[in-house]
Design a protein that fits this description.
Helix content: 40-55%
Strand order of the largest sheet: 1-2
Order of helices and strands: EHHHEH
Strand content: 5-15%
Number of helices: 4
Largest sheet: 2 strands, parallel
Number of domains: 1
Shape: globular
Structural class: mainly alpha
Length: 92
């Protein structure tokens, strides 16, 4: 189980995605390798690319994955809400 304790700073989409990938990697170190590479690329990254990469990688795992968001109510950025909605709508 991945656990992500959120604060107001996590309303920044880049920071939020980095923390989501780190929380997923805590459940399985193979998860999120490509997403991390996309976020570390010098060219910048597209949130859609990172999210698709995470969903595709989750689809290859045999075990169920649980990710808990603690204090999600502090998030006020629509981009973060859209990213969470994308994950929920597209999870395997």
């Amino acid at each position: 189980m991945g656990w992500l304790a959120l604060d107001e700073g996590d309303s920044d989409l880049s920071r939020f995605l980095a923390h989501v990938v780190a929380a997923l990697r805590a459940t399985d170190s193979r998860l999120g390798v490509e997403a991390l590479a996309l976020m570390d690329a010098d060219r910048g990254f597209s949130a859609d690319e990172v999210l698709v990469s995470m969903v595709n990688h989750l689809d290859t795992t045999a075990d169920p994955t649980v990710l808990a968001f603690d204090d999600y109510h502090v998030i006020d950025a629509s981009a973060v809400h859209d990213a969470v909605a994308f994950l929920l709508d597209n999870l395997p």
